[in-house]
Amino acid sequence: MTKLIGLTGSIGTGKSTVSKQFKACGVPIIDADRIVHQLQRHGTDCYLAIVDAFGPTVAGEDAIDRKRLGQIVFADHAKLMQLNRLLDPYIRHAILKRINELSAQQTPLVVLDAPLLFEAGYASYTDLVVMVTCDSVEQVARITARDHVSTARAVQLIGKQWSQSIKQQLANVTINNSGSIGQTKQQVIKLLDNLR
Questions:
Q1: Are 75 and 16 in contact (CB under 8 A)?
Q2: Is 131 helix (H, G, I), strand (E, B) or coil?
Q3: Same domain as 117, residue 22
Q4: What is the CATH number of the domain that holds 37?
Q5: What contacts 191, CB < 8 A, 6 or more positions away?
Q6: pLDDT value of residue 173
Q7: Which of 50, 75, 109, 141 has the least CB density, counted as fewest CB within 10 Å?
Q8: d(Cα 56, Cα 64) in Å, to the nearest integer?
Q9: Looking at the structure, do residues 87 and 184 belong to the same domain, yes or no?
Q10: What is the total count of domains within the chain?
Q11: Which residues constitute the domain of residue 160?
Q12: Which residues are documented as binding site?
């Protein structure tokens, strides 16, 4: 029977780093962000629905212009909620399809990597939720370096998500990603040893 591990974390905490550690240990990853990118390719039903809802300015040649769409939805909370409602059935269908495929292959462990695991209700599909955390100063520094934004913008992006403390209360396991990659890897290996 497949055990599904939900992996979540706030922006800039290093969830992708932890996801890579699970993958390096041989655990298949269902990446919700990657699914969203695939759904937004030119010509898909999801692409057409987004263009219909937000106008032709978000229509890119190969896919939705995520930068332009982001400018629209992050400036207006109602539009962000509209986008989330529009995307949810497409994402949910793709996630469940992949879970079923891996279960049919009798894959023992699978990670569902989803930044909005709790917010979107995907945690209900999982057997265990792992929350990635890091020091708040480090979190802001990572966002400013990675996304080339100001400290104020980084703080604003963090504020649009559930806080780390709320997610930690809901999670079964916490991985602190404030240290080195080696320290993070050891936490992942220890968790997998306990699950296998």
A1: no
A2: strand
A3: yes
A4: 3.40.50.300
A5: 130, 173, 175
A6: 96
A7: 75
A8: 10
A9: no
A10: 2
A11: 1-28+110-196
A12: 12-17
What band does 151 get if pLDDT is binned at 50, 70 and 90? very high
> Are 75 and 6 part of one and the same domain?
no
pLDDT at 48 over 90: yes
Which residues are documented as binding site for ATP?
Answer: 12-17
My answer on whether 15 and 57 are in the same domain is no
Cβ 8 vs Cβ 128: under 8 Å? no
Both structure tokens of 185: 């890897």
How many CB atoms are located within 10 Å of the residue 143 CB? 23
What is the Cα–Cα distance from 125 to 129, expressed in whole angstroms?
Answer: 10
Helices (H), 40-170: 45-54, 66-73, 77-104, 136-147, 151-159, 164-170
Note the pTM of the prediction, 2 decimals: 0.89
Question: Which of 56, 72, 106 is a domain's end point?
Answer: 106
Provide the phi-psi class of 12: left if phi over 0, else alpha when psi is between -120 and 50, else beta.
Answer: left
